[in-house]
Specification:
about 425 residues; 3-stranded antiparallel β-sheet; alpha/beta
């Protein structure tokens, strides 16, 4: 073999010293990085006695030397790692999964683990000036220390959003009861051509029209902000829109009532913004996130099915009691549809029967008829059927919501929420 050059000898000596030093501190730092303790009893006995100052003195190292070595390791890892920017996502994963990496990707992660041990030693020395990246605000280039191993929820949201992988649904379709929750997912599946991903539309059952939606809206839809760029605030997770589809009754009875409830939810959502972001422009942006609609002038069953279809569905569920004919059933349904002073209720048609028909059982019986109507309306996309109209609007809102590189405009009049 050819003799080694002096620089090669120095490099090997440096690597040897680094390996020895890492071995001297790994029992303290490695379990906290890898979230694994292989020998808990010796670790518990040794850890309280650990002193990073004492270990540094043994090797004659300074904080500045640790910082320089850590940056070299991070730089080399970034140079050889074939994962590129996907490292942003990998470092958020549980450390157990890093062992599944192969080749240069695994080697790069080993370099980063070594660098993190040195940087945590600097943290313990209270030398955050050497171990922490400078603030991102005002700078346009990455710093080496931006690549530190860390798992923070805000970073995960941003990493997923940047790659179009956020689990955050594009739309919450809020429905009023079990019947709608049973059939509307099937309606959207027919229109979508297959199961609708939960990242596109998530269905929420409000159980009763009197349910207060404030908490749900504030928790699920509240924006998660990233970098503030002056006129625009970057969103670390994509926006979620909400479509509320209810019967036209009680606090949703009239168009004015519906707008009042919609505006109330918009205001609650707006109030989740930080005070410096609560501008008129931001309010106009947030206003686009919430819609309220009804099934028309009647509740679900009467809006989507004729009297004869409802009668056929009832007779498919139970036998008509003595003295009740098809004609009297038709007439009873028609009277219930035309009732004044309250919202019609299909369950009242069967009140007093030995066997009562539940709305869920009736929905199952009526599904083939509803599916046929949806399939007839799908080619044209022109739905007069309320279920089809709401389903189409839900898909339009969900598929029209951008999932990457989204910002909230807070100072300019031009609306950009949802633009890529």
């Amino acid at each position: 073999l050819k003799p080694l050059y002096p620089a090669e000898i120095a490099g090997m000596d440096g690597c040897r010293r680094l390996a020895l030093f890492l071995s001297a501190i790994d029992m303290h730092y490695l379990p906290r990085i890898l979230l694994t303790i292989h020998h808990p009893t010796p670790w518990e006995q040794e850890d309280p006695l650990f002193s990073i100052v004492q270990r540094l003195s043994i090797f004659g190292l300074t904080a500045e030397a640790l910082a320089a070595t850590a940056e070299q390791l991070l730089a080399q890892a970034g140079f050889i790692d074939p994962l590129g920017t996907w490292y942003e996502l990998v470092r958020q994963a549980h450390p157990d999964t890093w062992t599944e990496l192969r080749g240069r990707a695994r080697l790069a992660m080993d370099y980063r683990i070594a660098a993190e041990m040195l940087l945590r030693a600097l943290d313990d020395l209270d030398r955050k000036d050497l171990s922490t990246a400078p603030p991102t605000r005002g700078r346009f280039v990455r710093a080496i220390l931006d690549d530190r191993l860390r798992a923070e929820r805000e970073d995960l949201d941003e990493a997923l959003t940047d790659r179009g992988l956020s689990p955050q649904p594009a739309l919450l379709l809020i429905l009023e009861g079990k019947t709608e929750m049973l059939l509307m997912p099937r309606v959207l599946q027919e229109m979508y051509g297959g199961p609708v991903p939960r990242t596109l539309v998530e269905f929420v059952n409000m159980d009763t029209i009197d349910r207060d939606l404030d908490l749900l809206i504030r928790h699920v839809l509240a924006p998660r902000f990233g970098e503030d760029r002056g006129d625009v605030v970057h969103l670390n997770r994509p926006p979620t829109r909400v479509l509320i589809a209810v019967d036209p009754e009680k606090r949703f009875k009239t168009a004015a009532d519906q707008e009042k409830q919609r505006s109330k939810l918009v205001r609650r959502l707006f109030e989740t913004l930080e005070l410096q972001h609560q501008t008129a422009t931001a309010l106009a942006e947030v206003d686009t996130l919430v819609e309220v609609t009804t099934w028309g002038s009647h509740p679900w069953e009467f809006a989507n099915f004729t009297d004869r279809e409802l009668a056929a569905g009832i007779m498919a569920c139970v036998s008509l009691p003595h003295g009740v004919t098809q004609q009297t059933l038709f007439a009873t349904i028609a009277v219930e549809r035309a009732v004044h002073g309250r919202s019609p209720n299909i369950e009242r048609v069967c009140a007093g029967w030995p066997q009562r028909v539940t709305k869920v059982a009736l929905a199952e019986a009526l599904w083939p008829r509803l599916r046929s109507k949806i399939r007839r309306g799908s080619p044209s996309g022109n739905f007069k059927l309320p279920a089809g109209r709401v389903g189409l609007r839900a898909l339009q809102l969900a598929m029209g919501t951008h999932r990457r590189h989204v910002g909230l405009r807070i100072n300019w009049a031009r609306r950009i929420l949802g633009l890529s």
